[in-house]
TrEMBL record:
It comes from Kriegella aquimaris. SUPFAM superfamilies: D-ribose-5-phosphate isomerase (RpiA), lid domain (SSF75445), NagB/RpiA/CoA transferase-like (SSF100950). Belongs to the ribose 5-phosphate isomerase family. This is Ribose-5-phosphate isomerase A. Keywords: Isomerase. It comes from the Bacteria.
Amino acid sequence: MGLEQEKKMAAIKSVALVKNGMLVGLGSGSTAAFMILKLGEEVAKGLSIKGVPSSDATAKLAREVGIPLISLEEAMKLDINIDGADEFDSSMQLIKGGGGALLREKIVAYNSKYNVIIADSTKEVRRLGKFKLPIETIPFATKNIIGELTEMGLKPKLRLVKGSPYKTDEENLIVDLDIFEWDDIPNLNEMLIRIPGIVETGLFLDSTDLILVGKGDSVIKIEK
Ligand SMILES: O=C[C@H](O)[C@H](O)[C@H](O)COP(=O)(O)O
């Protein structure tokens, strides 16, 4: 079974949790895209929901497949949020932001009553950090932040796309960090968040209620 199939199976399973009348957080990335397509099919069949997108790309896809959208402030509290991840460990700690959408994703997750992560089997790791940790930074401070994080041994790299700095939906810059050697991840997260100009990190530490992982031809559940 290929990875795309694993993503798709996890995504389809997650859509079964969405019920009539729910306000739904719509994640970003390739796995979340499968979920949005399936949700669009269900809406076409009569499922009545409203979605809050976690990125401009997700909003575009959701509109294309006919999912009614509302803003976060209209929704206030979401019933369920379904999103992908770049890595997760057995304690349900995540790295997200490979696609640069971590800030809005974290806001949507925080404002959701129930957070579901959908993933293929390659995302499961014993220790977080093989995937570089994305942090979102205010451009005014990015060079200084890179300087400070270099001194901390985090090997920060400004994310580039075709040679130019990658800009997030909030017009910020992403810096990717090597955190593999760090043992105390919650403490690292606290240290990063305290640096002025770092808006958010891609560490999602206590926000997940359920992970659905496509593995071979089945979907495995990891729950709190
Ligand atoms: O910024 C991107 C998001 O955090 C994605 O959910 C994450 O990168 C996983 O994406 P994918 O499902 O494409 O592997």
